[in-house]
Amino acid sequence: MTLPRLHITFSNALNGARHSFLYKVKVIFLLIVLPPIIWCVLLLITKGAGRGLAAALGTVAYLIIGVWGCLRDKPERSFKRYLLLIMPALLYGILFLYICVPIASDVRLVAEDFPEAPTRYWQLPTGSRIAYYHLEPPAGVTKKAVPMIYLHGGPGGSVSESNIRFFQRLADHGYDVYLYDQAGGGRSDLLPVQEYSHQRNLDDLAAIIQIIGADEVVLIGQSYGGTMLASALTDDVIAPRISKAIFAEPGALPLDMDEMIRYVDKNVPKNGSMTAKAHQYTPSALFSPRAITAFLLPAQSQIVSQTELMNAVSPSETHKMISSAYCQWDANRVPQQSDVAVNYLADIVISNDKANNHPVFSLEKFSDSHVPAMLMLGECSYVYRRDQLAYLVAYPDITLSQYFTGVGHSLWNGLDNNNERAEASLLSFIENTTPPLPNYPTKNDLAKFVEDGK
C-alpha cells in the first residue's frame, strides 16, 4: 500500500471514529441525560397537572422524537443498535408513566366522632374551618376561670382518642379543655397546599383564643405544638392572653435550621454518646417514587393530593408510627388507634416554612417573656434531646421541669400509671402546688443531665 493511500485510509478511520464518538455522546445526552430534565421542567410548567400525566406524556413524546432522530441520523440497521436506542427511552417512559399511577384513593376518609366528645367546628376569620373538641367539667364540679387549650404535634397531625381520654381527667378537675385539629389535619378542612404555614397556625390559634373569649388561657404544646407555643409567646396578640405555658416533649425552637444548630452547639452541653433513645418511624409509602416527586416539587404542584398521601399509609404502618412514641419495651402493649392520620404534604410545607424561619422568631423576645412555663420530658423520646434542652437556656421563666421515666414522646400514653403521673405534674404546675417529681433538669444541672445520657 502506498503512503498516500495509507494516509487516506487512516484519515477515513479517524473521521469514522470521531463521528462514532460524537454520535454516542449525542445519544447519551438526548436519550439519557435530557429526558429527566425535560420531565422536571414540564412538571414545574404544568404544576403536576393530571396527577403528573401531562408532564409524562410530554416527555414520552420527546423520547419518541429523540429515538426517531437518532435512527435517522445514522440509518444503518442492526438489532443491537435499535435495542440500545429504544431501551433507555422505554425505561424512562415506563418510569414517568408509573409515577402518574395513584398510590391510594383520593377520597378523604374522616374518622367517626370520639365517643367522649362530639366534633364541633369553628369557622375562623383566617378562612380555616377547624374541628374542635370541648371537654367540660362534670355536673356539680366548680368550673375554673382559666380554660386550657391543647396544641397537638405534627405539623399535619391531629387530636387522638388518647388525648381526649387524658384531658378529660383535667376537665374532671373543673377545667374547660379545648382540643382542636390544626388546619388540614384530623377532621379540620384541608387548605390549598401553598396556604399551609407556621404563621397560619399561629393566626388560627389567635382567632381561637378570641372566640373562646377567656381573658387568659393555659396553653399546652406537645411536640410541634411546643414549637408553636414558643412562637405564641413572642406573638403580640397571643402572648398577653397566656397565663401559663407547658412544653410537653417539645420539638425544636422555631429558628432557622442553621441558627438552631449554632445556638444548640453554643449553649447546650454535648455528650458524644448522647443519641435519641427512639427513632420516629417513617411509613414506606412516603419513599415511593410518586411521593418523593411530590415532596421535591413546589407546594402548588398537583401531582399528588393531600388525601392520596394520607390514605397511602396503611393502618399497620400508622401503628408503627404511633409505637415509635413509646419506649421499646412497651412495643407489644401499644393500644390500637384507628383515628390517627397525618397530612404529610402539610407537614412538609409547614416544616420547611418553620425551618426557614418564616415568620422570623426572635430569641430575644422569647427570652424576655415572663409567662411561667413548665418543661416535660420523656425518657425514651425520639426528639433530639439537646434541641429540647435549649428551651431551658432560651426561656428563663421555665420554673418547673419534670423528667418522666418509662415513657417516650407520648407522655400520657395510657399504660400503667403514666396518665396519672402526667396529670399530677400538670395540675401541680397550674395550681401552684408541690410537684410529684423533682424539678429536674434545670439550667444549672444541664451538664450532668447530658453527661448521664438522659
CATH architecture verdict of the largest domain? 3-Layer(aba) Sandwich
CATH fold call of the largest domain: Rossmann fold
Superfamily (CATH H level) name of the largest domain = Alpha/Beta hydrolase fold, catalytic domain
What is the total number of structural domains?
2
Share in β-strands? 5-15%
What is the helix fraction of residues, given as a range?
40-55%
CATH class of the largest domain reads Alpha Beta
- CA-CA gap between termini: 86 Å
Question: What overall geometry do the principal axes of the alpha carbons give?
Answer: elongated
User: From N to C, what is the helix and strand string?
Assistant: HHHEEEHEHEHEHHHHHHEHEHH
Number of H- or I-type helical stretches: 15
What is the rounded Rg? 29 Å
Query: Could you tell me the mean pLDDT?
Result: 89
Strand order of the largest sheet: 1-2-4-3-5-6-7-8
Q: Tally the beta strands.
A: 8
Q: Largest sheet at a glance?
A: 8 strands, mixed
List the helices and strands and how they pair.
Layout: H1 3-46, H2 53-73, H3 79-99, E1 120-123, E2 129-135, E3 148-151, H4 161-171, E4 177-180, H5 198-212, E5 217-223, H6 224-232, E6 242-250, H7 257-267, H8 289-296, H9 306-312, H10 315-323, H11 344-355, H12 363-368, E7 373-380, H13 385-394, E8 398-408, H14 418-430, H15 446-451
Parallel strand pairs: 3-4, 3-5, 5-6, 6-7, 7-8
Antiparallel strand pairs: 1-2, 2-4
Helix pairs in contact: 1-2, 1-3, 2-3, 7-13
Q: Which structural traits does this protein have?
A:
454 residues; alpha/beta; Rossmann fold; 2 domains; 8-stranded mixed β-sheet
